[in-house]
Fold each of these.
Amino acid sequence: MDELIIAGRSFNSRLMVGTGKFASNEAMVASMEGSGSEIVTVALRRVDVDNPQDSLLNHIDPKRYLLLPNTSGARDAEEAIRLARIARAAGCEPWIKLEVTPDPYYLLPDPIETLKAAEVLVKEGFIVLPYINADPVLAKHMQEVGTATVMPLGAPIGTNKGLRTRDNIAIIIEQAIVPVVVDAGLGAPSHAAEAMEMGADAVLVNTALAVARDPGAMGVAFKKGVEAGREAYLAGLGKQQDKAEASSPLTGFLRSEPNR
Amino acid sequence: MDIIFNGKAREIQDGICIQELLDQMQLDCMQVVVEHNNNIIPRQRLAETPLNNGDALEVIHFVGGG
């Protein structure tokens, strides 16, 4: 059985999904079910008492999914640590998707603040999954302070551009001693498959599912992409080369060969 | 009395505890986390934590996110 193991816990699915931006809770649930995911991310925000909403947790079965709260909205380490502690107080297991994004335009993660927060949260007993730029040196630092994974971005959040950071992700995968989860920017099942073919351990997808005309069907499509990529990686992909190499025999042609 | 509730001034009944305020607002304590003057208050202590004039209260819950 080809299981994903994070911090000693096994998962059959290598596709994590987000729960943001869906048009309805029904669409979100359809997408989660279609994707076959076992890990779903959620965010923490102030309750809006003037516009009470149906609680998100009424739609996510805790027996079926591991809830992975994120620290989205945090602009520095202090805010991220505060959100992580709030998530744990909510009764979640101490898993946290650590993200610190001070720049609202590109939402790129702050490497220094993320590392600071990771160090504190690991010491407090959290299982930390940090969202980072695809920087192999930073990925090493994260692992040294004890993060359970690294989550390098393929492209900025919500851009659907795919693996723009491909070469750096390849280095991160080559050097990683913890699972590598490619997060952010994956807009199509082919992008997810590409990450998995390269040897990524898992991917996380949200926007591509949430904005699909049919989020349930897109969940299924991403599931297949992730599985295809993983199976190809395990099966062993051929090397790329410039010169053509015939697949059919180069002998026995139905023509007269010149004498050599 | 007045408190700062989720960043905004709000008038509430005098002498109530956090649990009573949540009840009045029809907020299920099992689905929120409360920070009182920057300290997280465990659920079992919401009913024994009184509110005072000028307190800051944050009531947070899970929403969709990536």
Note: The domain at 4-47+54-235 of chain A is CATH 3.20.20.70 (TIM Barrel).
Amino acid sequence: MSAAPAIAAKAPARAEGHALPVAVVCLAILVLWYIAAIPMNWVVTGPKIEAAGGGLANTLAFSWNEARPVIPAPHQIALELWKSVFGAKPWMPKSLIYHGWVTLSSTLLGFLLGSLLGIVLAIAIVHVKFLSKSLMPWIIASQTIPILAIAPMVIVVLGSLGFTGLLPKSLISMYLCFFPVTIGMVKGLTSPETMQLDLMRTYNASSAQVLWKLRFPAAVPFLFTSLKVAVAIALTGAIVGELPTGAIAGIGARLLQGSYYGQTVQIWAALFMGSFIAAGLVWLVGVAERFTLKRMGVRP
Amino acid sequence: MAGPVISARELSLVFQTADAPVYALSKVNLEVEEGDFVSFIGPSGCGKTTLLRVIADLEQATSGTITVNGMSPQEARLKRAYGYVFQAPALYPWRTVERNVGLPLEIMGLDNAAERVARNLDLVNLKGFEKKYPWQLSGGMQQRVSIARALAFDPKLLLMDEPFGALDEIVRDKLNQQLLELWGRTKKTVVFVTHSIPEAVFLSTKIVVMSPRPGRIIDVIKTDFPRDRALDIRETPEFLAVAHRVREGLKAGHSYED
């Protein structure tokens, strides 16, 4: 019994050990940001500061509270985030929750499609020898094309076929995120050792049995690593997909509007919203990973 | 049962490599009778593992003939005639002990899986470890799980490729004894690859001494120790005489020269 409190006491100690460095880094970034805001905003705020008589107090007041700054101060972004998240009804276009949801839904659809495509391609490549030579170059080439160059084409072509809204954006997400899944899964599906494969041969197992009982379980850790990358770039894909269409909803639309009207604070708030969503998605994949690996009996 | 379990005639296997062909097996002749415990012993590169893999159809001979249960090795493999134990346990880490042992049963679609798994885990003295994952077991226990897995579908022939090679002497002695008991109880035919002279002499009814470059058989020694032998027979003059003959055979094959 005496061991139990000792173990319990260990956990918070470890948590503290992480909290301090994280806090220090965050604080350092904030301080640098506030300092950098002064010279960066000078173009806009310089004349106002001079007109008000200069001095440190005026410099700080103007540099950090400009309505259309080159770079807004962190508290301005926080305030804008607060207003647009909690100050507006979530279904209204003024709300960042609304825009976030629009982007999130196409991200999730694209992520789902991309992951499935990635897994199917990997299975095909591992099983059909000539595919690894004939298909791989195309897969790699597909990723060397800048997404910004083809996104408008995809949107326009699909739009002319009658597909608008969620699907075209999701397809751009899919286009970006199948790639890490394919690469990771090819690696994972070929990761079993010769002995483990020979064992299946001695049982005269079919290739479907080898796939589901050996290759796929062995690939699961690789799959989750790929999915973390994939989910983050699926979000990027969805945002990029919103840019060229003049979409009126979504994080991308919010960024575009902000840049039309010089609303830098709004741009930054939307950017932060996007990264919060990305962080949340990556975290969720991590949770799913830990859960799955635990179910698979992986050594803790 | 009519005829030998394994019969090889003038069996050769040549690996084509970039610079020169490697004669892994050269004109091997061998008979294994039902109920035999046959050991292949020799230094590395003598083809003992290759010969076992040819029997298992994991490797194909380039010339000569070989039959397993009167069939070609491929037919025997397709009929799931043998259980194979590898140099390493090769357990699937995401499966518990019982699910690892049950793997061949799942693949072959055999019934009574639960009963078979329990019986074979009992046979290797691993009752109570059903729900453990491989990483929770010692190396010796893992290899016992892999033996139970090889026995799970009740093959008459057990092929073992240096199964205890990676274990320490003490664990190895214990497993050797357990393997003998298991062999006595199940009346399987066992083909066992090793590079340990005491292990080969202690376990076998027939010792096949092999030599490298080209891989060939240089001596076949029959022993007549009782089936339920204990570890202390290793100190008897008869045991030492057989071990001496194995050592002489290995020497004659120039296996110590390089």
Note: Residues 15-71 of chain A form one domain.
